[in-house]
Amino acid sequence: MFYGLHIPAQQSPHAVLQAICAGYLGNGDAATARAVMLRLTTLAGTVGLGVGVVVFFGQEALANFFTKDAAVMAQVLLTLPMVACFMPLDAIASIMDGSLMAAKETDYLSAVQIAGAAVQYVVLIYMASNHLVSTVAVWSALKLLTVFRIGGGVLRNFLSPTSVYMTPMPLASAHAAAPVILRDSMDADFGSEPTLEVQAAKDGEGTLADGIPSQAKEDRRA
């Protein structure tokens, strides 16, 4: 139950990072997106470490709060230290997931998850075949996915030549050209010359943001 409460806490920075970094990457600001990712990675890891320390040293009190069964207590006290040690890594893995989703690397993220799950199943099958199944062993196998998620995120975000966090994304200029094309076509429909704003934009001598109506527009209105 405690671990179930811990998962939403991990997903909060994941969602925040995804929203913020997606905005910066969409504007071609890779440097700021990378800085945000590093800050949130540090924050998530620090919070995860703090929670892990509390769980590690308060494991008996936590276990007593949820169960009084001696057999269950024994298994919990065997496993909880390992779970507590992985809490900062779980938080960092969540940040790596969010960074990949912000960069629209969902195919790559899916491949990492599938590869990690496949390795988990191989390890679990091996343990079951050799009578090595225990609570600690199963949890250890499950944590392999955390290692894969962190490794996959670091590899794509920092070491890959195609990383959008290391190379600025090109900005689309279509939104700037669209008004010029629209007004130019409007003038063509009326059989008149292009407006001064359009001509200036074409010649590189002005912008459409000047807000001054052209003489051609005034003549047409008259």
Key words describing this protein structure:
mainly alpha; 10 helices; 0% strand
Describe, in plain words, how this protein is organized in 3D:
With 222 residues, this protein is mainly alpha-helical. The chain has ten helices and no strands. It has helices spanning 2-26, 30-57, 59-66, 70-102, 106-129, 135-142, 144-159, 174-190, 196-203, 215-221. The N and C termini lie far apart (76 Å). The model is unreliable at 172-190, 194-202 and 204-217 (pLDDT under 50).
Lay out the secondary structure.
Elements: H1 2-26, H2 30-57, H3 59-66, H4 70-102, H5 106-129, H6 135-142, H7 144-159, H8 174-190, H9 196-203, H10 215-221
Helix pairs in contact: 1-2, 1-4, 2-4, 3-4, 4-6, 4-7, 5-6, 5-7, 8-9
Shape assignment: flat
Spatial separation of the terminal alpha carbons: 76 Å
Helix content class: over 70%
Mind summarizing the main beta sheet? none
In angstroms, what is the radius of gyration? 28 Å
Q: Uncertain segments of ≥5 residues (pLDDT<50)?
A: 172-190, 194-202, 204-217
Kindly name the structural category. mainly alpha
Q: Count the E strands.
A: 0
What is the helix/strand order? HHHHHHHHHH
Q: Work out the helix count.
A: 10
Which strand-content bin applies to the residues? under 5%
Tell me, rounded to a whole number, the average pLDDT: 79
